[in-house]
Design a protein that fits this description.
Blueprint: H1 2-6, H2 8-43, H3 47-59, H4 66-84, H5 88-103, H6 114-127, H7 141-153, H8 160-183, H9 193-216
């Protein structure tokens, strides 16, 4: 308790590092487990289950995750094999699982993901081969593929600036409230305005930033 009172910054940094390490460890464990499960299903010719678990392995992603690339390669291989076997629905499912898994790993400043763009191209190409809809009767395969690709490319992503404001606002808001609880009361539990005034203004600014980010992100 003495260290907490005298060195709160050090304690906070250690706590944050421990939390990040715990989260990364959990994510890495889950990604490896899902990949191993997917490989086992694939070896036993349970392709649909393998595709599902490869998608989950991709979703459990973090920077420099070695398991994501393996799962992406496996889904690409499964999709190509299913198309060769004439199972177009299965191939589309594999490509969609790949695209959806990678889409779920995006963050505010994510750049272009080549594997996802390729998956969307393949989905559009395979979907254009289905000529059962009457509305598509007068369109060529190239036109249908272009239409599907355009729809797949439409994304509703968080605005980076407002998203950053939201996250920073939440951090400031919560941090300021912690400071109020820590510094705003004396040893007998009485509120001290002189000590709590700064943190309270910080909490107000953080709350406003969080609210604006939530509205416009």
């Amino acid at each position: 308790m003495k260290l907490v009172r005298e060195r709160p910054g050090i304690v906070a940094v250690v706590a944050i590092i421990a939390l990040v390490a715990l989260v990364l460890g959990r994510v890495g464990f889950e990604s490896r487990t899902e990949l191993a499960t997917a490989n086992a299903h694939r070896d036993n010719d349970r392709v649909a289950l393998a595709v599902e678990h490869y998608r989950r392995a991709i979703r459990w992603s973090f920077p420099l995750n070695p398991y994501t690339a393996d799962a992406v390669s496996a889904l690409e291989s499964i999709a190509a094999q299913l198309e060769t076997d004439g199972d177009l629905e299965g191939a589309i499912l594999a490509w969609r699982s790949l695209s959806g898994g990678l889409a779920a790993t995006r963050f505010l400043y994510s750049g272009s993901i080549p594997a996802r763009h390729n998956a969307n191209d393949q989905i559009a190409r395979l979907a254009a081969m289905d000529r059962s809809a009457a509305i598509d009767a007068n369109l060529s395969a190239e036109q249908l593929a272009a239409n599907h690709r355009r729809l797949l490319g439409e994304e509703v992503s968080p605005d980076p600036w407002w998203g950053t404001l939201l996250l920073l606002g939440m951090a400031v808001w919560i941090g300021a409230l912690v400071l109020v609880a820590w510094r705003g009361f004396d040893s007998s539990g009485r509120f001290r305005w002189s000590s709590a005034r700064g943190p309270l203004w910080g909490a107000l600014v953080g709350f406003v930033s969080f609210t604006l980010g939530l509205l416009f992100a």
